[in-house]
């Protein structure tokens, strides 16, 4: 397929490892794209996928939908759809006609007929056009502004992340997975490590890997019970990988854990949550009845983990059994506690959606942090009580 009067624009940055990238800008009728394009979405089976699913609201015929915009409104898209033809599939052939400057050239572009055009940005525009074309056949000739590249899969993923994370929100779980791929992919240029893979983003990438371990390890109570990005929810799922990744990333802010190997942190967390499961078994057996495996429980208990780990490390035994000992202190009465909701034993009834205290119905990370602080205070009270017994 030959496209004439194509504009080849070469752009670059000065980040270490960044290369010059030629961009081919031209227009094609909508119908010409429909038979070529595809979306490389992430699913549990396609772990190198990077695209999100389609949002129904953006495809409708109402005022906010692309189809409605085409059928009832201006129907003008001044920005281009971004697609990539992968290097492994073909090398684009460009014949220069007119050199406007060192980095801007016009000419003819030959794209092999049998290659796929991977859509990096613009999938809702294309899908909305398809819907509108069914009512208005002339839209098959709609001129779509196209920017085409000829790079590899890693470039696709990276560009998708940069375009979407810096303009409009990428779904959180998908963002974590893209960060994970960028951290561990050996093709990543140095500038990614120096600018993106630092601080919180680096912790999120590592946390996503730790969550993968928790989903696979036989000693993890989350084994096979974590809903992944792009996966329909299974009856046995108790949480999502996005939720767990968020709280594991917060744990990694502690130096003691950030300096460990990923799998070692996963082993600790598998033991910790295994101890929680043994302490509150029905919360795992019938999670729908309780809030322990909902955001409140996952957040507050994740925040308590460094405290319990600290006690265990001081004992010289960071084992599941020792963690369970300290978690068991939550089930003791502490009348000296400053908050009445934490003076009684924190039994399974405390976590119960119907029988539990009003505090379990609060929301927000500030609220969860306060619950974690109350848990830590309760454990501290019992620890001091046990010390006094030993000293007597």
Give a written overview of the molecule:
This protein has two domains: 2-166, no CATH class; 199-391, no CATH class. The relative contact order is 0.09. The protein is built from 15 helices and ten strands. An eight-stranded mixed sheet has the order 3-7-4-8-2-1-6-5. Strands 9-10 form a two-stranded parallel sheet. The chain is α/β, with parallel strands linked by helices.
Short description:
With 392 residues, the chain is α/β, with parallel strands linked by helices. 44% of the residues lie in helices and 15% in strands. It has an eight-stranded mixed β-sheet.
Properties at a glance:
single chain; 392 residues; alpha/beta; 2 domains; eight-stranded mixed beta sheet; two-stranded parallel sheet; 15 helices; 10 strands; elongated
Specify the structural class: alpha/beta
Point out poorly predicted stretches: none
The overall pLDDT, averaged over residues, is: 93
Q: What is the C-alpha radius of gyration, as a whole number of Å?
A: 27 Å
End-to-end Cα distance: 89 Å
How many helices in DSSP terms? 15
Biggest sheet: strand arrangement:
3-7-4-8-2-1-6-5
**Helical percent range?**
40-55%
Shape: elongated
Number of domains: 2
**Major beta sheet summary:** 8 strands, mixed
What's the SSE pattern? EEHEHEEEEHEHHHHEEHHHHHHHH
By DSSP, the count of extended strands is 10
Secondary structure layout:
Elements: E1 2-11, E2 21-29, H1 30-34, E3 37-38, H2 66-72, E4 81-84, E5 93-101, E6 104-110, E7 117-121, H3 123-133, E8 143-149, H4 153-165, H5 172-184, H6 190-196, H7 199-216, E9 226-227, E10 239-240, H8 241-251, H9 255-258, H10 262-279, H11 281-285, H12 295-315, H13 320-328, H14 348-351, H15 365-391
Parallel strand pairs: 3-7, 4-8, 9-10
Antiparallel strand pairs: 1-2, 1-6, 2-8, 4-7, 5-6
């Amino acid at each position: 397929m030959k496209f004439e009067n194509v504009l080849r624009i070469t752009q670059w940055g000065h980040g270490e490892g960044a290369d010059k990238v030629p961009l081919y800008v031209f227009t094609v009728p909508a119908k010409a794209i429909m038979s070529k394009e595809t979306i490389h979405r992430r699913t549990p089976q396609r772990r190198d996928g990077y695209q999100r699913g389609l949002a129904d609201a953006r495809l409708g015929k109402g005022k906010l939908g692309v189809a409605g915009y085409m059928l009832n409104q201006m129907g003008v898209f001044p920005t281009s759809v971004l697609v990539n033809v992968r290097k492994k599939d073909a090398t684009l052939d460009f014949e220069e006609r007119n050199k406007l400057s060192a980095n801007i050239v016009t000419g003819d572009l030959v794209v092999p007929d049998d290659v796929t055009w991977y859509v990096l940005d613009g999938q809702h525009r294309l899908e909305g056009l398809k819907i509108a074309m069914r009512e208005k056949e002339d839209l098959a000739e709609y001129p779509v502004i196209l920017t085409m590249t000829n790079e590899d899969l890693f470039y696709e993923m990276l560009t998708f992340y940069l375009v979407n994370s810096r303009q409009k929100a990428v779904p959180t779980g998908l963002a974590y997975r893209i960060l994970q791929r960028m951290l561990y992919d050996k093709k990543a240029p140095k500038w990614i490590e120096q600018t993106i893979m630092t601080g919180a983003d680096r912790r999120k990438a590592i946390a996503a890997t730790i969550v993968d371990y928790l989903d696979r390890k036989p000693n993890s109570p989350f084994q096979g019970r974590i809903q992944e990005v792009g996966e329909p929810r299974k009856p046995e799922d108790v949480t999502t990988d996005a939720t767990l990744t968020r709280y594991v990333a917060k744990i990694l802010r502690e130096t003691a854990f950030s300096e460990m190997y990923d799998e070692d942190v996963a082993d600790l967390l598998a033991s910790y949550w295994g101890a929680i499961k043994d302490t509150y078994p029905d919360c795992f057996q019938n999670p729908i009845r309780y809030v322990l495996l909902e955001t409140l429980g996952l957040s507050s208990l994740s925040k308590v983990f460094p405290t319990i780990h600290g006690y265990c490390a001081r004992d010289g035994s960071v084992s599941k059994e020792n963690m369970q000992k300290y978690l068991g202190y939550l089930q003791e009465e502490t009348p000296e506690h400053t908050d009445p909701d934490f003076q009684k034993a924190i039994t399974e009834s405390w976590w119960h959606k119907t029988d539990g205290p009003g505090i379990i119905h609060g929301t927000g990370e500030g609220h969860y942090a306060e619950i974690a602080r109350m848990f830590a205070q309760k454990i501290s009270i019992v620890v001091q009580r046990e010390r006094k017994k030993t000293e007597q």
